[in-house]
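Progress narrative, Year 2. Work on DUF177 domain-containing protein from Novosphingobium cyanobacteriorum advanced from sequence curation to structure prediction during this period.
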Amino acid sequence: MSEFSRIVDVRHIVADPVVLVPDEAECRRLAGRFGISAIDEMRAEVRLVREGDAVTATGRLTAAIVQPCAISGEDFPVKIDEPVNLRFVHPAAAHVDEELEITAEDCDEIEYEGVTLDLGEAIAQTLALAIDPFAEGPEADRARAEHNLAGDPSSGPFAALAALKKQG
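Result:
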């Protein structure tokens, strides 16, 4: 089961936007799933439009998360503001065998079966893709210098190659 499930019946889609906000427990479970320290806030506002069996979801996802720095390991706050552009399709309608040229403006396709789709899980996946696993916090440069992570140009594979070149 998804940490943030919001089931939508495609037969009852309305013109008003759908607002999705996880509760505190859902934020905690999502943070654990994504390997970050916390999700302080998360909100998605999405318009759903049904086109036959397909449903498009467009809108915006905003979040305030806390994640560890990729260099120092220390937690730091990160703001996320991502467009949502999804298309839910039945498996038979998915473009599995077709070769497609995809641009940045194209929707991500998500398969669903029956008459319901899980919009919450799709928003959770959108958040997961927006999190930079290599993000560096404000203490990254200090940690890099303290632990000599910047690399010593007089050592390493290129220094060894330079030494071999000088011998030859």
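The CA atoms of residues 15 and 47 lie 7 Å apart. Residues 7-167 form one domain.
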